Give the backbone structure.
Amino acid sequence: MVKVQTVAVAIASTLASSIPALAQNSELAGVREEMKQLQRNYEERMQALEKRLTEAETRAAKAEKSAGQAEQSANKAEKSATQAEETAVAAGRRTGENAFNPAISLIMQGTWARTSQDPNNFFISGFMPSGGEVGPPKRSFGLGETELSISANIDPYFRGIVIASLSPENTVAVEEAYFQTLALAQGFTLKGGRFLSGIGYQNEIHQHAWDFQDAPLPYKAFLGGRYVQDGVQLRWVAPTPFFLEVGGELASGASFPGNDLNKNGAGSTALFAHVGGDIGESYAWRTGLSYLRTSANNRSFQDPNSLGIPVTNSFTGRAKVWVVDGVLKWAPNGNSTQQNVKLQAEYFRSEQDGTLTYDDLASAAPVFGGLTDSFSSRQSGWYAQAVYQFMPRWRMGYRYDALRYGSVNNAIVNNGLGPSAADFSLLGPYNPSRNTAMIDFSPSEFSRLRLQIAQDKSRMGATDNQVFIQYIHSLGPHGAHRF
Amino acid sequence: MKYIPAIIAVSLWLAAQPALAALNILACEPEWAALAKELGGDKVSVYAATTALQDPHRVEARPSLIARARSADLMVCTGAELEVGWVPLLQSQAGNPKIQPNQKGYFEAAMAVPLIDVPTRVDRSLGDVHPAGNPHLHLNPANIAKVASALTERMAQLDAPEAAYYRDRAKSFLERWQTATVRWEQEGAPLKGLPLVVYHKDLSYLVRWLGMREVGALEPKPGLPPTTAHLSELLSQLAKDPAKVVVRSAYNDPRAAAFIAERARIPVVLLPYTVGGTERAKDLFGLYDDTLSRLLAVTK
């Protein structure tokens, strides 16, 4: 505005100064009149200019305003566009051939081990070998089991889960493969296929979620590390305010303490009951009682006789196992993030009744040939462990486990005519025990590094001092761990 | 073994007892328990699976929760993978077909609300990310209103005879909630632009709603505990871009927040995070009232 005025005044004064001496008398009046007109003209023009300018300015302001509005709505549009995009992304994931792909997760494990005894000669003195993978990991660096887990709902009625175990020896084993009902009412759940039996407490917990690198001694001695069933399981949760669950299993009974019977009907029966609840906000507990009955038909094992020559012994008969278990967890106000404690203990009692066959015919110089006589055993074992998370990521734990030889009635030895007790070197009276301590560090919920030291007196007269370093990594979806 | 028949008999007797409420609700978090009570009144019985002092990410499928899930008609959870470590176990172990995923008896609040912080990349190197977005959605009153409407309809579906009752209560609740929201937004106006340090991304909806500014987080990555290295990095970052306050939820460890507060010379404010987190946060209204007054105390 100011600029326009100055320019106008400048022009006016220039015009005025360019009309000098002509200003004489009448002429002068005429010139003055002209000048006045000019001035008026300019003033009019200036006013018109000013008017146009203000108009333009208001228009500009309006434009600015509407521009702002436009921007705002653009922002909004962008926002809703991102939202739309989000839903589109979500929807996009659910279309195409991959839409029904099951959930896949993978557990990777490995160890570094140092043991004072040869892990290849592992046995538990006084107890029939289970044939399971119960020994310590091999020395030096070693790969553990890699677990591949695949699960999805089959249809509205069933869910399917398969866990394949890839062993470091490059073999694949089906660890679990079962279906589970989704739609049975009244607290019932039916499971079928191959699954970890519901007996005991630790049995149903997957190995990668164990608090120590290996299984407690009673699991190793009486269940071959853990008990897997090929069969069906029915569970019922009671409609009570506290937790009460009962379950039963009918299965082939092909795993230790049974073996493949090659007969019709169920080879093993398992029953279990669990009770649990909370004590205040800081404690949660569960306790249980389990019973397993199975049979063995020529379940054989190698046992060196008194001369050190391997002899094939085999057991035929009935095996029963009782388990009493209990677990108590503490976390301040139920918040386990900072600190928590887990106490866990189980007691096992095993009974075997049947016949034992001693057979050295396969050896180079048979002494007694094949003998069969009655055999019965009443043996027990227990363990107790405590794990304390003293700060986020860090836990330490201690476990004591022990087996009691109990009473073993081996008629072949007792009648004194054939092999003596020394010819059953694995079955001599001995009470194995072990002390284990561990500390583990979990950088996140998906990775864990563990140092474990143990003094293992499983073998009579040979204490095994063990040091293990173990890693457990999980890939894929966030796992859900059982209580 | 001989006690089993007796146990079964007792539990059958217990099962035969008439239920006191029409609708048995198991709420995964206290905020949904509070909402279910607001909407259901005395026609529902509500049990909260967790308290405000527990981290909803790290809850175990305790036996007591399996027992509650067994008799629940409706489970009200957040969803968006918040309860991925325990709710699937409750569903698979309780033997209750009603509360299975995709059934009417399993309600996820996250389905009723657009989530923020949806990651563009899903990779565990970024921490415990939630692919569906930030699940701590209850700290924006608009979300509570949306969830309330959706939950009312679900309750009305499951318990048709009482549908009118639930809808009446929802109407009254939403009216009171709307009034309160307007009041909170007025009261919260001074908080606009307030720079703050959070513990976890569990207050993001609150931060966004009140227009506050999240300068940093005590967790180096979502779900990982604070480390000294990260805290000192955060301190040097705060020297350049100072925050006015460190906020933490009732269930967070107080030490990391205190560490930063002391060195950056800013106050720590404990927020209830959910119903029951503080004395005043007795219900959803109290939760917001207390949250705002605790934050406003800093700006005075």
About this structure: The mean pLDDT of chain B is 92. Chain B touches chain A through 50 residues (CB under 8 Å). Residues 163-187 of chain B form the longest helix (25 residues).
